[in-house]
Design brief:
heterodimer, A: alpha+beta, Metal Binding Protein, Guanine Nucleotide Exchange Factor, Chain A, six-stranded mixed β-sheet, 12 helices, 7 strands, B: 199 residues, alpha+beta, eight-stranded antiparallel β-sheet, 4 helices, globular
Chain lengths: 390, 199
């Protein structure tokens, strides 16, 4: 058999290279990893760091027909100098992980994991999000499979275990990637780089929560959370500062701080006092002045507490009136790792991991130094159980 | 299955509307061999949609077959009812065909239960390979039906599938699959992003 793919196309009409996830993992990637010959050179090796997404379609063309997605092998050997995360930066931008990794199953068992990444033009953290999406598939390794055993249990310990396993995932191996351009189901505002667009955010959140896309039972919980976020968004119009501010930025950050006071005051006026209050004078600048590593731990635990409350409210239909500070989440390593580029990197897909990922992303910017979101979030959560506010 | 079997894994039959008409329906109607000859011909209204497995060409949870267009689309256990407006299928800027959509209902007409089974039925606008202009093509093709080969002019090619929230309706329309959660996380990324400092 010989089908010249790169020269004259002999792919019969109507046929496309559109492999299933199982084919990608169990045939192509497995052969690649084992250095076996693959009949046809349909999937090329690509140096991700040297290839911009808009060049991929030329490089990874198959046949002459129209193509909506492109495939390549990539070797994850590049790391950022500062850590263990894979370097997926190109000359023009970088690939940033989003969401959590998804386990890929065949009829029998789990065979691999899929990471979703979005291409941002520019350099972190100022990148401009593009419509280019990449699904990066990796084979299941020993660690992944051991964590699979615990994945069914939605407990903090299983999350921690799988997270630990994920840390030592197959970081240096081959992956097979599919790149495509996201279609817009509705008119999108995500190119709006507008500065103070709290309303836009709120609109985006409301839009997502009301969209039929998310009406499946699976996502009802998230839907509800987004709904709460939408309601509380009126109180969180302010912009956040970067989660880990460098001391040099302190000046710049002190200014917007005054705006943060209002939600705190209102929260105080509400008189619930269910949390220990941070010092009233400019909490964010205080935090910002501290060296990055000494970011106060309680603040990172608070959003976990908030999330717990929301989750609890969803699960039980009511809020426990316990103190937020009693919900101890000592997992702030996880939180931190989710902050930067690798959000959801190598996550497992336990339910709690899902909530935590959502919480981290919802509150991510707030958790490092800024409190306003936390407060408004707290207030909206509080409103669920108490009606006497204000 | 014809020329398909020697393709490596990952190649699947995902024809576009245009390909269905240009490479399959037109050739069929012109009595030319289809290459590859993988789409079987089934008698009209013989089978309920769930009976197509093994009889029609299966590709990615969709079934393809040639048939002849009929007035009534009633099979043993139900009938196909039209949904939506007909769509024109164009190639090179010219309309070459028509795509009709149907949904299958079980039981007697008017007291039947809708199913998830959907059929796309493709018709040629111009039986003769596109020499006519689209404006008058309707009339002219009717005339042609009259005297030229009566049989071939009402050939249709059908795509039948069970629509559900995750089925791939058509390669070209719904290829960019992002899971619901992916979409949510993407929108949350927006949220994140707006939060970043502007300096």
């Amino acid at each position: 058999m010989s089908i010249s793919v790169n020269g004259q196309s002999c792919v019969p009409p109507g046929f496309r290279f559109h492999p299933t996830e199982e084919e990608l993992l169990n045939y192509y990637l497995r052969k690649k990893v084992a250095s076996q010959q693959i009949d046809l050179d349909v999937i090329r090796d690509v140096d991700l760091n040297k290839l911009e997404p808009w060049d991929i379609q030329e490089r990874c063309k198959i046949g002459s027909g129209p193509q909506n997605d492109w495939y390549f092998f990539s070797h994850k050997d590049k790391k950022y100098p500062t850590g263990t995360r894979t370097n997926r930066a190109t000359a023009a931008g970088f690939w940033k992980a989003t969401g959590r990794d998804k386990a890929i199953y065949n009829a029998v068992s789990r065979i691999g994991m899929r990471k979703t990444l979005v291409f941002y033009k520019g350099r972190a953290p100022h990148g401009l999000k593009s419509d280019w999406i990449m699904h990066e598939y990796r084979l299941l390794d020993a660690d992944d499979s051991s964590s699979a055993a615990t994945a069914a249990m939605v407990t903090a310990s299983s999350v921690a275990a799988s997270e630990a396993a994920g840390q030592q995932g197959p970081e240096d191996g081959w992956v097979v990637c599919r790149v495509f351009k996201k279609k817009h189901h509705h008119k999108d505002t995500n190119s709006g780089s507008g500065s103070g667009s709290g309303n836009k955010k709120a609109a985006a959140l409301r839009r997502s929560s009301s969209s039929p896309l998310y009406s499946s039972g699976d996502d009802a919980a998230l839907d509800q959370i987004l709904h709460y976020m939408g309601r509380s968004s009126a109180a969180c119009k302010q912009e956040h500062d970067s989660p880990r501010p460098a001391p040099a930025q302190t000046q710049a950050q002190a200014r917007p701080t005054s705006r943060y006071l209002r939600p705190i005051e209102t929260a105080l006026a509400g008189g619930h006092g269910f949390m220990k209050l941070p010092p009233l004078e400019s909490p964010s600048s205080a935090a910002a002045a501290a060296p990055p590593n000494t970011t106060p731990v309680p603040e990172t635990t608070m959003d976990w507490a908030m999330m717990d409350r929301l989750v609890a409210s969803h699960l039980n239909g009511q809020l426990h009136d316990d103190h937020a500070s009693t919900a101890v989440v000592d997992d702030d390593h996880r939180l931190c790792s989710a902050f930067d580029d690798g959000a959801g990197e190598d996550n497992d897909d336990g339910g709690l991991a899902f909530y935590s990922a959502a919480a981290t992303r919802l509150l991510g910017a707030a958790a490092g130094a800024v409190d306003d979101d936390l407060w408004s979030f707290a207030r909206s959560a509080e409103r669920l159980s108490h009606h006497g506010s204000q | 299955m014809g020329g398909a079997s020697n393709l490596p894994p990952g190649f699947h039959f995902f024809p576009s509307d245009e390909e269905l008409i240009v490479h399959f329906l037109r050739r069929k109607a012109s009595l030319l061999p289809c290459r590859p000859d993988i789409v079987p011909t089934l008698p009209p209204n013989r089978y309920d949609p769930w009976e197509l497995n093994g009889k029609a060409l299966e590709a990615g949870n969709q079934w393809y077959f040639f048939s002849h267009s009929t007035q009534s689309r009633t099979s043993q256990n139900g009938q196909w009812n039209p949904i939506g407006a007909d769509e024109a299928v164009s190639s090179g800027g010219r309309n070459i065909g028509l795509k009709k959509k149907f949904i299958f209902s079980i039981g007697e007409p008017f007291q039947s239960n809708k199913t998830n089974w959907v059929m796309h039925e493709y018709h040629l606008l111009d039986g003769n390979g596109g020499s006519s202009t689209s404006s008058s093509s309707g009339k002219r093709s009717h005339k042609k039906k009259g005297h030229s080969n009566k049989e071939s002019s009402n050939w249709v090619i059908c795509r039948v599938f069970e629509s559900s929230c995750h089925s791939q309706v058509s390669f070209h329309e719904d290829d960019m699959e992002l899971s619901c959660l992916d979409e949510v996380f993407l929108s949350l990324d927006d949220y994140d992003e707006v939060s970043l400092p502007k300096n």
